């Protein structure tokens, strides 16, 4: 027994330290800094800023099919994803902004890496260049069509195409910014004084600049109240101009507060309780929370499209008047 055990120990392959392999031969130069592997004698890398978790990655200690609780946020300005068009011949980007705020700004970044820190989203260019100008739009407008000539002349061909293996590397981003005024009262009693505080909200729409793409808009991220959220559109929800989501994900373009027809507002399994839980990543909101939890214990597939379940997103019904 002892000799056999000793022989096994002697014949074990040497321990390999992860991170000793060199970067892939064909890796683009501007992405080399994102390659996680480092030489053995390299100094320890600086901690990376926290990134926005994707909807198919449940947060915290949630189980594989855990139900994430949601909240409802009201968005006053957004880029309509269906309106985004890009003409590679003229480097022209066209999109529509749907807004109910009196003032907002937009800017267009190209060839950047997204960073998220303390709930703020900012961008680091692949190559040194000037910050893009912020264009102001004044006056309350329902829809505003925008046409911008994108600075794509200095982008390599590989920088114009979104690569899912490097999700932080973005070809083009349209950033909307607007501020909301809130009234606060400082002090108490006779010494109480009213004051106003402005809170900035932003929306970040990532656009693929490739010539032939199936989906021009890659993703949308919003920041509100010191947190960053990934945006998804839901199928089967009602009402518009609201953001519905769960920490740290957010779903834009629909609300769980409207029910529409009585039959359409019910869970597709029990046909009794209102549907208030969406299946991610297919984004079908077709279940009540109770049936959703039972479904994943037996058959973790969406009852509408039979697609796999990554996580469940539960949105409570909240009146529109209570939204922020």
Automatic annotation (TrEMBL):
Q: Does the keyword Zinc-finger apply?
A: yes
SUPFAM superfamilies, alphabetically? RING/U-box
InterPro entries, from UniProt? Answer: MGRN1/RNF157-like, Znf_RING, Znf_RING/FYVE/PHD
Positions with biased composition (Low complexity)? 1-20
Q: Where is the composition biased (Pro residues)?
A: 41-52
Can you name a GO cellular component term?
A: cytoplasm
Q: Which Pfam families match?
A: zf-C3HC4_3 (PF13920)
According to the UniProt record, where is the region Disordered? 1-65
Q: Indicate yes or no for the key word Kinase.
A: no
Per the UniProt entry, the signal peptide is: none
Give GO BP annotations, semicolon-separated.
protein ubiquitination
Bias-annotated ranges (Polar residues): 53-65
Know the name of this protein?
RING-type domain-containing protein
Q: Which organism is it from?
A: Trypanosoma brucei brucei (strain 927/4 GUTat10.1)
- Tell me the organism's taxonomic lineage: Eukaryota, Discoba, Euglenozoa, Kinetoplastea, Metakinetoplastina
């Amino acid at each position: 027994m002892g000799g056999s055990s000793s022989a096994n120990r002697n014949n074990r392959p040497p321990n390999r330290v992860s991170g000793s392999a060199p970067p892939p031969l064909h890796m683009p130069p501007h992405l080399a800094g994102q390659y996680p592997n480092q030489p053995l004698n390299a100094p320890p890398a600086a901690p990376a800023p926290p990134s926005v978790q994707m909807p198919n990655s449940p947060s915290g200690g949630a189980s594989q099919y855990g139900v994430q609780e949601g909240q409802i946020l009201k968005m006053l300005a957004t880029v309509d994803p269906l309106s985004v068009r890009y003409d590679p011949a003229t480097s022209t980007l066209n999109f529509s902004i749907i807004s109910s705020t009196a003032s907002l700004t937009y800017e267009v970044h190209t060839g950047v890496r997204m960073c998220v820190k303390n709930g703020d989203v900012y961008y680091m260019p692949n190559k040194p260049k000037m910050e893009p100008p912020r264009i102001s739009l004044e006056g309350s407008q329902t829809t505003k069509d925008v046409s911008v000539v994108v600075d794509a002349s200095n982008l390599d061909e590989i920088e114009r195409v979104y690569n899912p293996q490097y999700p932080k590397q973005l070809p083009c981003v349209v950033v909307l910014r607007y501020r909301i005024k809130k009234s606060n009262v400082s002090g108490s009693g006779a010494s109480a004084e009213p004051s106003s505080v402005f809170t900035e909200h932003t929306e970040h729409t990532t656009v693929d600049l490739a010539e032939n793409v199936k989906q021009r808009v890659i993703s949308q991220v919003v920041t509100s109240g010191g947190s960053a959220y990934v945006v998804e559109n839901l199928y089967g929800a009602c009402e518009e101009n609201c953001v519905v989501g769960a920490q740290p994900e957010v779903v834009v373009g629909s609300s769980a507060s409207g029910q529409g027809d009585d039959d359409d507002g019910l869970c597709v399994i029990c046909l009794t309780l209102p549907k208030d839980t969406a299946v991610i990543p297919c984004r079908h909101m077709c279940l009540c929370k109770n049936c959703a939890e039972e479904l994943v214990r037996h058959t973790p597939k969406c009852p509408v499209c039979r697609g796999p379940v990554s996580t469940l997103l539960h949105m409570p019904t909240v009146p529109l008047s209570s939204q922020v």
